[in-house]
């Protein structure tokens, strides 16, 4: 009987020792994890890419979060399915880029028909503020600003308000403005609006304004035209209705945006 008790005690002790040893992380594993996190720490990498920042946030919080807001071309109008929009394609690219982002999702806060002024409405901004994304992409909505005769002055004011709102409420969020895609025709208004301005005037003037403020900007319009010219792709073939991209157009958008998201910020110019 005594021998049986001793065997029970020895077995219990062995199990306890095994539990303690397996419950405590290996020091080498802890050190490797800390080193990996430091690799992506923005304090140690001030010009890091947006992708690396997202990976860092995923490592320290368990998930990386990105949101987009803008008009119908941010929402994905014209595509056969949301998975074929630039948002859907970029989402897959992120998932495949790093194990920390394997379940990554990009929330869609695009609103068809909205101008940049309407992007300030509470039902647009409240979900984004609640979500607290690590990266926020703001498509400038200037297709609608042009069509609906929003002046450049009011356009600039709205972009400034959007930046101030999100940068103050979400200080750790990286904010990126991006232009909409190039278009061939205007189905919702005249080529020249009541101010005598073309759609491309809005693209060019907002690009200058945003860059003069020192905000991060991606010229979707110019990058897509450059890529299409290099591939001998006609603009008309990338559009469903002259304004909204089709699946081919959204793929080109994703293809030109992805390198920008991976590049070190401030180190490389936007493709022109």
UniProtKB/TrEMBL annotation:
* Xref: Pfam families: Lipase_GDSL_2
The UniProt keywords, alphabetically, are: Hydrolase
Q: Which InterPro entries match?
A: Ester_Hydrolysis_Enzymes, SGNH_hydro, SGNH_hydro_sf
| PANTHER family documented for this protein | SGNH HYDROLASE-TYPE ESTERASE DOMAIN-CONTAINING PROTEIN (PTHR30383:SF5), THIOESTERASE 1/PROTEASE 1/LYSOPHOSPHOLIPASE L1 (PTHR30383)
Name this protein carries in UniProt:
SGNH/GDSL hydrolase family protein
Q: Point out the signal peptide segment.
A: none
Q: Which GO terms describe its molecular function?
A: phosphatidylcholine lysophospholipase activity
Q: What is this organism's lineage?
A: Bacteria, Bacillati, Bacillota, Bacilli, Bacillales
Give the SGNH hydrolase-type esterase domain ranges.
70-252
